[in-house]
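Exercise 7 asks you to align residues with tokens for two separate proteins.
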Amino acid sequence: MESLKEKTVNGLFWSFFDSFGKQFISFFIGIILARLLEPSVYGILGMIVVFIAISGVFISSGFGSALIRKTNLTDTDCNTTFYFNIGVAIFFYFLLFFTSPFIATFYREPSLTLIIRVLGIVLLINAASIVQQSLLIKRIDFKTQSKISIIRTIISGGVGIIMAYRGFGVWSLVVQQLTGGFIGTTLLWYYNKWKPKWEFSIQSFKDLFGFGSKLLISALIDTIYNNLYYLIIGKFFSAAQLGFFTRAQGYSNLFSSNLTRVIERVSYPVLSSIQENPRALRSGYRKIIKSSMLISFAAMMGLAACSESLVIILIGEKWAPCVPYLQLLCFSQMLYPLHAINLNILKVKGRSDLFLKLEIIKKCISIPVIIVGIYLGIKAMLIAMIVNGCIAYLLNSYYTASLIQYSTISQLKDITPSFLVGVATCLAMWSVELLMLSLVQQFIVQLLVGGILLIFILEIFKLHEYLEIKSILHTYYRKVSFKRT
């Protein structure tokens, strides 16, 4: 039997491999697609993201998190969740099917009607995978999920590239998503041995929904808010500008969202398993925060520093307008892992009521951000998002402090060294622009300067979080080496 630490290390490695391996492949696929497709194509697809995302939240309804957290999980719980997910997915698919003409009219984009009706099929496909994926997460089996993610990304990406090359435009992106969903769900059923039975328990539904319902409302509020930017930009600006925004967000998500997803997926089941031990919970939580924020600060500030050379070299001059969007998004998303970990504590402690309360408060104070975007433009909206992110963190950490006795001030003290390391690396990389090199030379020098300086600082000052990351990597390396011998 693996110890909790071994499971955590193994889960972290495979979750990192899953998210970043998949994104590494998606990154290169995205480069090819961005060169083949126009920015307006991405903008058209971005117009309907909010509707697909909201439907997905209702389909899940927090049941996945409820299954992961439940200590005495039964087959009845899984069966009940499965049929609930499928039933809600069917309802929302037909809702989108019949409302698609109105959405197309709202955006003044007639082609959206058919696009929504076809892309909506992905809701049905994904609904069939929720229980299977939750069971893998509960077992902290990210190795299997990594295999599935890599396979689905390669195949769906290949399909998208072939269609884009042959001139299918936006349909290459639509079919790419459908292909990825189908392959991912099929492989989850193949690797996971659980199979549903004809069973639906009202009592089980009440138990799971009692916890999941508050997460549903929280996720709904969060999803609407996060995707509202697509709605605003698509309505008040051009499809090309929305395309620039989506491309910038895609690059910023390479690190922020993927790191957040990794930390959230691994920390939730791990911390849930020690929820009855306050000292161990606080210690584990603190280690996760310090290590994840060192990576986040260094990665996001470094990406902001080299964004101009990165974008133009990889996808061409036609995408240059997305550079300032990318830089601002990097700074607004730096704290994402911190948000996720603080919110995970609320779920671990069973306080989905506080989770919901926080989401309502944070989204209410975010209304000015939306107003700024409508009247002052996209850049002003992104600056407002940075300020809003800092306020949101203070709110998240306030409730966490009372639950595990780890105050906001203590958290800020713990992550300040990592922040300073990120700032030093960012400034050094940005200063390379003063050398007036070609874009290719500039990009190469920026990476070298940033990487060398980062390692030098960390080795000199021996930050505890850096040593923790090295320890995790060393532990996994020894484990792999032992298995080979």
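Second protein for Exercise 7:
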Amino acid sequence: MNELHTGLPARSPHPAHRSPGLPDESAKDGAARVLRHAATLLHPRIPAFAESALTELRSVSSYYGNPLLSPPDLRESAHTALECFVGGMVDPSRMSESGEYAWHTGGRRAEEGVPLQAVLHAFRVGGAEIWDTLVGLVMRDCPEQGHLMAFAANEVWGRVDRDTALVVEAHRRAAGRLPEDDGRKRLPLLKILLRGYTEATRVSAIAVALGLPLHARYAVVLLRGATAERSVTEPAREVRDGMELHWCPQEDGLAVVALLGDRSVEDLATAIAMPPGLRGGISTVVSGLMELGRARELAELALSGCSTDGQLTCLADRLPGAFILARPDLAKEFSVQVLGAVLEADPVERDQLLATLAAWLDCQGSTEEAGKRLYCHRNTVLNRLRRLERLTGRLLARPRDVVDLAFALESHRLIEGQSP
């Protein structure tokens, strides 16, 4: 392939004599150009290349090959790492980015409990995949320049060695900051269970490895928000008020696996601090480690019922709401069926009627107490309730109709995010 097409000098048919293994300046310059050319070809293909590299990693790594152990952000992390590395070969001003990301990755994986050996394996596999691909692109696009890749190898593997050293140092420093026996090494196994793994034999083995009873009273807490993170100086395992708490960082927040003993979910709620900007949900009690995946789903339902920051919702207190949130499509259809005429009324009247119904229900059907809450006379409450009965065709004197109205109101509040 000629120079005009590739931007690379054609190989001389009679190269100047030089000592073996000691490239002259022209060879170094040629190697830099051919390497940059190959990296430029690879850069736009990073998404597909990352998938190929991940497939290779999973096939050779027992850790990353296990979908339950593999970090949930592996795909995004691999894409970013490869983009930084290849981008640094295309644009020298970006040369430091892959090292910075390697440092970030090493520290983060230590905090997640991922073994250093597994992280190193991933970086080495990634480096080998990049090198093989770069060589393949050169041999396909400009084979006459292929010999220069022998000199480019020092540049590529030098960067791989630099990033690997940064990963090691960051991992060791982060691990060194962790409290002794804080439970960090248990995190990958707990994450397996939180993802719903239920194969009986292996779960019993995990129970032994974790030092936790296979059958016991557990609950799961999910925390989300700007402050939903755990400092590396805080233990991943601690005991509060007789409950053993395991803090598990998640892709979208924090999970807490609680071995309750004889404590209740209300005791657990009291033990969990809720700083500003945080919302949380607590599952009902489950009977063993094999049910942690289900408990996580129940905590997710409880969390979705939070309406304000600082709120920690126990699912046991919101079971009707859990039915609503589990099938929001049916809940919305039901609220429209029952409250349709009210919802279509003038916004001012609509809000008044819904607020009055909510107050009446909260006040155990007392129009006088509802009036005090709404700052109006009890006759105003009665008039609004009669108007609501006419619009909905339901009578508040009929218990079944009250159930329909209460459930429809809660459905509307949760699905539409409105609090009457």
